[in-house]
Amino acid sequence: MVRPSLFHAWGLRDEMRSGAKGLMVAAGVTYAALLLGFLLLRSTPLREMWFLRLAADFRPYFLVPLLALVPAVLVCARSRVARVFVASPFLIFALVYGPLFLPPTSVASSSSERTLSVMTYNVTRGDPGLDTILAIVESEGADVVALQEVTFEVAQALSELSGTYPHVALHPTPDGYDGCGVLSRYPIIDEEAFPLVEGAHLYQRVVLDVEGERVHLLNVHFQPPGIAVLRGGLPIPLPVGYDTTIQDRELERLLEELETLEGRVLVVGDLNMTDQSPGYAEVTGRLVDAYRAAGWGLGNTFPHREVRSIPMPFSLVRIDYVFHSSELTTHRAYVGDRGGPDHRFLVAELSF
Prior knowledge:
There is one protein chain. By secondary structure, the protein is an alpha+beta fold. It folds into two domains: about 5-100; about 115-350, 4-Layer Sandwich (Deoxyribonuclease I, Chain A), CATH 3.60.10.10. The protein has helices at about 5-10, 15, 20-40, 50-55, 65-75, 80-95, 130-140, 150-160, 245-260, 280-285, 290-295, and strands at about 115-120, 145-150, 165-170, 180-185, 190-195, 200-210, 215-220, 225-230, 240-245, 265-270, 290, 305, 310, 320-325, 330-340, 345-350. α3 (about 20-40) crosses α5 (about 65-75) and α7 (about 130-140) packs across α8. It is globular, with a radius of gyration of 23 Å. The protein starts with a helix and ends with a strand.
C-alpha cells in the first residue's frame, strides 16, 4: 500500500475522502504504486526471487486492471499528480508491448535469396489426434518441421507424409514426453539426439543441406519449471515455490553448444520459458527471436484449449519459439490457430 504520508504530500488525502470517486482514485494510485514497485524490483538483483520470476511470466496481464483504472482516475481525480502517477505504468506497458500490435514490417526478399520456412509443434504425445496432427503439418507445408513429445504412434503416422518430407529423423519414446523429431524437404546431412542433462527431454541436433548451404537446427524441449503449491483446502492452489534448476542447466548446455557452431543456426522448439524469463534474455543475446522480428501480437502458444482439464478461453503465455542467427532474416512469423490441447504451433518464414 502507498503510505498515507505520501498521499498527503501529493495533495491526495482530501480527494480520497470524497466518496466513491475518492475510492476509485485510491484504488488507482495504490495499484499503480504496486505495479511501479514490481517493475522497479525487476531491475534489481531481487528479480531472481522465485515469486518475482513467477509473476514476471504473466506481466502483460498486469495491464488489464489499468485499462479500467486509468480512464476512471483521469475522470474522477482532481489532482494532476494522481492522473500522471496512475497513467505512468500504463505508458510503460504501452511502450513495451505497443509495438507488438503495430502492423509487422514486411521484408522483401530478392530472387537471389534462398527461402526456408520452419515450423515447431509440440504434438502433446499425440493428444490432438493423429489425423489432426497430420492435417496441421500437411496444410502448413513448412520446409522443415520440428516436433516435440513424439510417441511411436505419432512417428508411425508421420510416415504418411514421406512424399512431402522425404528426409526424416524421428526419436519417439514410449510415453512420448521425451520424444522428438524433424521432418524436412531438404537432405539431413547429420543428426543426433540426446538429453542435455541426465533425465531431461531429448535434445536434437540436425544439420540440413539447404540448396548447397549448411544450416544447423537445434530442436529443443526444456524441462518446465517446478511450481510448488499449497492446497490445504484452498479453492485455488497457492504457489509457494518456483524451481528452474534443471531448465537452467539445460540452458547452460545449449549456450555452450551455440558457441561451437558457425554459420546459419536455428534453435526451435518448446523452451518452457516465457519471454520475461532470464533464459530468454540469454538466448536473444545471441540469436534473433523470429516472432518478435516479424510477428503480430503477444504470440502466446500455451495452452491451446485447456490446462489440467481446465478449459482456457485463450493461450496465456509464449513458450514455443523459432530463434535464428543473424545470417538469416525473418520475413513472416505466425502462431497457428490450431494445435492442442496444450500447444499451438509456430511457423517462421526465413531467407538467407
